[in-house]
Amino acid sequence: MRLFRSFLFVPGNRERMLAKALTTDADALLFDLEDAVPDSEKDSALEMTVAFLLRATGLAVFVRISHPDVKRCQEELRRVVPLRPFGLFVPKVESAAEVQQVDGWLTDLEREFEIARGSILLVPMVESAKGLRQAFEISSASARVGSIGLASGENGDFQTDLGYEWSVGGVELQYSRSKLVVDSRAAGLEYPIDGVFADLESEADLIAESLVSKRLGFKGRMVIHPKQIAAVNQVYSPTPEEIAYFQRLLQAFERAVDAGHGTVNFEGKMVDKAMAGRARAVLALAGPQRSITDVTV
Domain range holding 271? Predict the structure, then answer.
């Protein structure tokens, strides 16, 4: 799965919010059919989500479906899959078997609707201690798994299950975040996704929280309001100074290689192949991620 710095959560039953989402600078949109929608509006949310998937041509749109144990999950898949979303977020995953169940349903629907097999990706969400314990197995459960997300938001299911006290960038989440990053990378996933930041009034805290997340290896996060997008996109992108530095580093290293050397003294630091690989990885994160070809609002 390619890099997405920001995933804008949009409740599937909120028409104005869905319409607004199509005009934002979020790298990806996440239409929600799960916790953000009350039970009494699940049916109307599905209808509205289908309608807006038809309007979101050219955008990277994901849908958060119900948990596979919930009866309506298969109906959601049957309505959403023919519209070919970029991927599906699967909530509250605690085992590889749950991912494989959704994978099997998707494979059957892709065959039925003549969609290339495996073209719709899965993003399992870790929202419990058991899910975190199984993060590597979940990440490895299917070739469809494009990323994995951690429900790290304040007062969410993950905090409730583990019982910690939440703080901005606090130590209480460092183990969970680090384990998810390590497990997902060991499974071959490049871009683990962090959870939402609930406080809409403090951009400074959003930035501080996201910087901690970035340092621990996350490459993007979910957001719950359009006004959070710009800050999140900026934090999870290399700075102009980083880009310029690593470009110079690569140029110096490549000149050294051309001259038959394996290392080079670059601005006071010894640079070798590994450091050049790090430079390429950082530079790969630069640039726009969201392409709009045709949006009908």
Answer: 240-284
What digits encode the pLDDT tens for the residues 83-107?
999 999 999 999 999 999 999 999 9
pLDDT (tens digit per residue) in 244-255: 999 999 999 999
The residue assigned the tokens 């290689």 is 257
Neighbours of 58 (CB within 10 A): 13
Start-to-end CA span in the chain (Å): 27
pLDDT < 70: residue spans in the chain: 287-297
Same domain, 194 and 272: no
Contact present, 206 and 231 (Cβ < 8 Å):
yes
140 and 257 co-located in one domain: no
| Count of domains forming the chain | 2
The model's pTM: 0.90
User: Rounded to an integer, what distance in angstroms lies between the CA atom of residue 220 and that of residue 150?
Assistant: 11
Half-sphere exposure of 261 (CA within 13 A, CB side): 12
Asked if residue 295 is part of any domain, the answer here is no
* Residues 245, 227 within the same domain: no
What does 45-83 look like in DSSP terms, one character per residue? HHHHHHHHHHH-TTS-EEEE---TTSTTHHHHHHHHGGG
Nearest Cα neighbor of 38 from 63, 21, 13 is 13
Same-domain pairing of 80 and 227:
yes
Measuring CA to CA, how many Å separate 97 from each of 76, 101, 124, 133, 140? 19, 6, 12, 14, 11
Residue 86 lies in a domain: yes
pLDDT at 57: 87
Residue 131 forms part of a structural domain: yes
CB 95 within 8 A of CB 154: no
Residue 1 placed within a domain:
no
